[in-house]
Amino acid sequence: MMMGVNLFSCLFTTASLVQRGQLLPSLAFLQRHPEALYNITLLSAFSAVGQLFIYYTVRTFGPLTFTIIMTTRQLISIITSCIVYHHVIMPLGVVGAGIAFTAVFTQAYIKSRASSSAKAAKHKQPSAGPSEPTKGANS
Question: pTM (2 decimals)?
Answer without folding.
Answer: 0.64
